[in-house]
Amino acid sequence: MTEGSISRSTDGGAEAPRASVDEAAGVRLAYLPQPSDTLAGLRVRARVKKTGLWLRWAFAAVWAGVWLLAAVGRGSTDAVSTVLTVFVVLMVWGYPRSQAAQVQRLIGWQGEYRVTVSPAGVSCTNDHSTLTQKWSLFRGYREARDHFVLLSRDPNIMCLDVLPKRGARDAGDLDRLRALLDEHTTRV
């Protein structure tokens, strides 16, 4: 099938354009998305784009510092300000987890994800959609313990593709996937 060709739905649906991904030369992954997948992607993004991480913790440190100075100045702690300070620090710490839970609510109902990574790009299909991305979309990737995380080129890294290693059929697929990623994008 060539890029931009039309494929017909087998369930009587409308025609939809589809870009081709050479599945024979690619590595296939199949998995159900988990919040831990999104959290791994957000952690990688935070490490690559350090500004947001630094600002979050600077905000929490300033808040805690103001609370500490007020407590020292008064000679005692105020229950309301103590609760608010603990709340702010917990919110800063828990923000990536709440983001991951929100993403899971958005994508979890879509069923199993079937991803093909090939020389043409990355194609992801689930029960409701198909998305094909060319390599030119990505600035690079980072390998985490249980995931490969592809990062988009835009300055804010708004697009993440998280490929869980558990989706591979065997260890040889992971080596082929790593080789494809190294060939078509860079490690960041």
Provide structural commentary:
The chain has helices at residues 35-48, 50-74, 79-107, 171-184, and strands spanning 5-7, 16-18, 27-31, 113-118, 121-125, 130-133, 138-143, 147-152, 160-164. By secondary structure, it is an alpha+beta fold. The strands form three sheets. A four-stranded antiparallel β-sheet has the order 3-4-5-6, with helices on one face. α1 crosses α3. It is elongated.
| Percentage beta strand | 15-25%
Pattern of helices and strands: EEEHHHEEEEEEH
N-C termini distance: 33 Å
What is the number of helices?
4
Strand element count: 9
The average pLDDT value, as a whole number, equals: 85
Rg of Cα set: 22 Å
Q: What sort of overall outline do the alpha carbons produce when their principal axes are compared?
A: elongated
Q: pLDDT below 50 for ≥5 consecutive residues: which ranges?
A: 1-20
Largest sheet: 4 strands, antiparallel
Sheet with the most strands: spatial strand order? 3-4-5-6
Descriptive terms for the model:
188 residues; alpha+beta; four-stranded antiparallel sheet; three-stranded antiparallel sheet; 4 helices; disordered N terminus
Write the layout of secondary structure elements.
Blueprint: E1 5-7, E2 16-18, E3 27-31, H1 35-48, H2 50-74, H3 79-107, E4 113-118, E5 121-125, E6 130-133, E7 138-143, E8 147-152, E9 160-164, H4 171-184
Antiparallel strand pairs: 1-2, 3-4, 4-5, 5-6, 7-8, 8-9
Helix pairs in contact: 1-2, 1-3, 2-3
